[in-house]
Design goal:
The chain is α/β, with parallel strands linked by helices. The protein has nine helices and nine strands. The chain has one domain: NAD(P)-binding Rossmann-like Domain (Rossmann fold, 3-Layer(aba) Sandwich), CATH 3.40.50. A seven-stranded parallel β-sheet has the order 3-2-1-4-6-7-9, with helices on both faces. The chain has a two-stranded parallel sheet with strand order 5-8.
């Protein structure tokens, strides 16, 4: 039996993961800003579920929540940084307060929980950290520049973190889901208040009022949850886990296009070294 600490469990992938972890007989510390949304989990798993209020943008809440979880279950084996949301705006349309709130949730919130759980994991020389990113970090869709930036930053942090903690028996996994049937593109999605007409054919097409994809996404959150558990429990935990055929297809499209462009400019690239001709 392992103890999982999962942020953002009220709906979506976080909720599906909490349900799957508990169904497998593990302990789960399930967190949300409003713990009343977690009542069904507590009723179904009174001995193995612990619900804690947590707003990851409030640093003063993070360490006490981790300490309470450790006191209740004796330690945290798996941290899942799932709390996050989307924000759509052309880069020029981005609003300072909204950009700061987005980074506070999607990036700095994850940093806070990582720093809070690592002392315990280091002491035991074991543990797993799972950071939920997005294929958006790789494909950088129009209208999602700020969201993609938060996830790209999280992935860069995760790569360095992996090399730092792997010798200590701690794994780090970045999860890049494609489009899943959650509230991400619905209730949870925010966007800039003002739209600039010049971007109507690019970022404008992805504004909530013009996006018809919500509710028809191909990804199944329950299957994604099972995949994450399988990856964490594997003998060789992957650093990068793509979820969904759409994510896999777009990964290779971007990889091939970038490779071709780099090759095209090879001579200019290598010509910047001392002694090059």
């Amino acid at each position: 039996m392992a103890t999982w600490f999962i942020t953002g469990c009220s709906t979506g992938l976080g909720r599906a993961l909490a349900e799957a972890v508990l169904a497998r007989g593990h302990n789960a510390v399930v967190t949300a800003r409003d713990t009343t949304t977690l009542a069904e989990l507590l009723e179904a798993y009174p001995d193995t579920a612990l619900a804690l209020p947590l707003d990851v943008t409030a640093p003063a809440q993070v360490t006490p929540a981790v300490q309470q979880a450790q006191a209740h279950f004796g330690g945290i084996d798996v941290l899942v940084n799932n709390a996050g949301y989307g924000y759509r705006a052309a880069v020029e349309e981005g609003e300072d307060a909204e950009i700061q709130r987005l980074f506070a949730t999607n990036l700095f919130g994850a940093i806070g929980t990582i720093q809070a759980v690592l002392p315990g994991m280091r002491a035991r020389h074991s543990g797993a950290i799972v950071n939920i990113s997005s294929i958006g970090a790789r494909i950088t869709p129009v209208g999602s520049g700020y969201y993609s930036a938060t996830k790209a930053a999280l992935e860069g942090l995760s790569g360095s973190l992996r090399r730092e903690v792997q010798p200590l028996g701690i794994s780090v996994t970045v999860v890049e889901p494609g489009a899943f049937r959650t509230d991400f593109a619905g209730r949870s999605l925010s966007q800039s208040a003002e739209a600039i007409a010049d971007y109507s054919e690019t970022a404008g097409k992805r504004r909530k009022e013009n996006d018809t994809a919500h509710g028809t996404q191909p990804g199944d959150p329950a299957k994604a949850a099972q995949a994450i558990i399988t990856a964490v429990e594997a003998s060789e935990t992957p650093f990068l886990l793509l979820l969904g055929k759409d994510a896999l297809d777009r990964y290779f499209e971007v990889d091939e296009a970038q490779h071709a462009e780099v090759e095209k400019w090879r001579e200019l690239t290598v010509g910047t070294d001392y002694g090059s001709q």
